[in-house]
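Students often ask what a 'structure token' actually looks like in practice. Rather than answer in the abstract, let us consider Patatin, a protein of 297 residues. Its sequence is given first.
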Amino acid sequence: LVRLCDLSSIRGPVTDRFQIFAGTSIGGLMACALAVGIAPRRVLDAIDASGPYIFVPKPVNFFKRFIGKAPYDSYRLSEAVKQCLRQYADMPISQVDAALLVPAINWTTGQTHVFMSASLGAAHASNATLYDVCMSSSAAPTFFAPHQAGEGPMLDGGLVANNPDMLVLSEVQRRWPNEIGRVEMLSIGTAGAATPRPPEKAMKSMPGWGRSLATFMMDVQEVTASSQATRLLGSRYLRMNHLPASGEAAFERLDLADDASRSALFRASDATAQEAYKRHRAFIDRMLSPSSLTGRQ
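Now compare that with the structural description of the same chain:
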């Protein structure tokens, strides 16, 4: 998004350029920050600076690993979220002026929990703070412990809606049923979509899957949601996502934050943004202009 804003000569916040912000996990943090008026560049800088700090493994304790303790400290993630949101961390999502949607999973009920601002309907709004919303949606079970929010222990929304496009469209249909034909959506991925895999590498048992099972399931959901949104919106939908080649280490693990991995991510995002802008300049410029359509997302 930062690169698209540069290409479109957009500076500062983008709050008035979209009518709904939505995201999951790291995308949820970005959506919350953008929705309250934090400029995309500041969001990027905060996230980039926090990566190496967040993914510092705990001292090895084989007993704790054996009984399933999370490998990373949620405290570090907590500090990074607060650093990004700053004075807005304690703001209830219900008080955010912009329409905002962030999914998580309630461990107790086993159901998807969608945090929403009052702009999507007061009856559906949540009183959870933006800090709790972001921590809930980012609590990936193979990396961090569940986040204890008012609604109960919460898990990463990426397990059910790594790409929340269809959740957004269902809310638009509910809130503005006559406007779905005018909706335009810009969807930005994190280089996590499923890529071709050699048949001979198909895992034969659960131990062989390890963490890759959760990643695979999120990839499949991401592609499915994008396909459904494309069928529903057609040319009014643009999905931007780098498709990593097999063996690109920076994209195979979600917890790599060393200099080489971060450089690879920046190169990929820059190339993806430039290619998308080259092919869809009119659409992107229109999406980044001040919003006047009820259904622009």
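One point worth highlighting: The domain at 2-192+209-287 is CATH 3.40.1090.10 (Cytosolic phospholipase A2 catalytic domain). Ask yourself how you might have guessed this from the sequence alone, and why that guess would often be unreliable.
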